[in-house]
């Protein structure tokens, strides 16, 4: 079965926050445009990044305050200066999250003053609010209440607000109108900046490849406003939570802590929330990875009081019905299934039924038997191949830290020497039959474990790696990658 990917392509994996720039993390600004040009210089046609939603304090993009909203920390405040909403000299000290937040607040006040006197701007904002009311109304108030209650979780709020009481909601919108308006402003600006970047990418022949967590965060606008769809009890706590049993990444499994879905309730209303969720993502992306796809067939249920993922049970999900509904309402979707971990024949059958490519990680290929599904000769074109993902060590870090038998097996299979790493593995990915090959930016730069982006199952020292600058177009990484992309027919057709 062929995939929906139209021809052999290659991608670079780099999250937006890892871009260089003048702020505390990368933003949707000039560096993002430059990176698109860099991709072209390297012969790539796809840019993959992680979820774009607003994050909690630990910074994980997989634990978002909203599955629909954009992260306001990704807003390029230089654009707000250019629009006259901030002064020219205010950005000099914007090197921290609190300072970025403070300047967004100031920009919001100026923005709404301008909107009162600029009919075209007001018309654009009104159109954005109307088109996105199904999530923006709840998210903007949720964001404001998080500020008012000093970041307390929604189940710790006053009972009327915790329980989404209609009268309490109306009163809060009036009482905290200025803070609500800041959240609306942030989403309007993020949306405008992102769509400008997407338009530029399309002009340059680059496709944007996004990522969708299978679950949403417990402390999120999604759960707060749609409690009947999630496994939270009458006081908002979870008796059961999501996670995974022990696997390659963790000997004790992972307790993610997300509420699970009330699939029966969701199916009863035609999966309306899921349809809106996927439609919103496809407005922002050209292709989308579904993280932990296997939970659409069966999901691991962990008791709420457990500290890890060892104790639990599998329960089935209506994945076929969901994907059929999405296909019927949104058309054939450019989805990629993250099918790592414990994958059964049923999960594979579900993925293949809907023509979704799965993932092959080359770092998993070595040190085992000849039937290892990640070995380069054991998968076909209906796959997306990675040297490693954001959850892996860099290729250099992995190779140096691997057992000698694993290293030697890798060198034998790749017919290379240690001096050729990581480029031997990069070349292997690009040479493979997989229709899409993805290379983390850290591998292109030959970086070690100091550039690892995330260690699954941990909260500290993750999501913070960042480029100090983007390589010039004639840099070694781009020269070498364009030669390989051309050799293995992955450049633009």
Polypeptide structure, described:
By secondary structure, the chain is an alpha/beta fold. Helices cover 40% and strands 10% of the residues. The chain contains 18 helices and 12 strands. The strands form 2 sheets. Strands 9-6-3-2-1-12-11-10 form an 8-stranded parallel beta sheet. A 4-stranded antiparallel beta sheet has the order 5-4-7-8, with no helix packed on it. Helix 5 crosses helix 8 (177-203) and helix 11 crosses helix 12. The protein is globular, with a radius of gyration of 23 Å. The model has no long low-confidence stretch (mean pLDDT 96).
Separate helix tally:
18
Helix/strand/pairing class, anyone?
Answer: alpha/beta
Could you tell me the strand content as a percent range? 5-15%
Gap between N and C termini, in Å?
22 Å
Write the element-wise H/E pattern from the N-terminal end onward: EHEHHHHHHHEHEEHHEEEHEHEEHHHEHH
Q: What keyword list fits this structure?
A:
four-stranded antiparallel sheet, eight-stranded parallel sheet, globular, 493 residues
Summary?
The protein is of the alpha/beta class and 493 residues long. The protein has 18 helices and twelve strands.
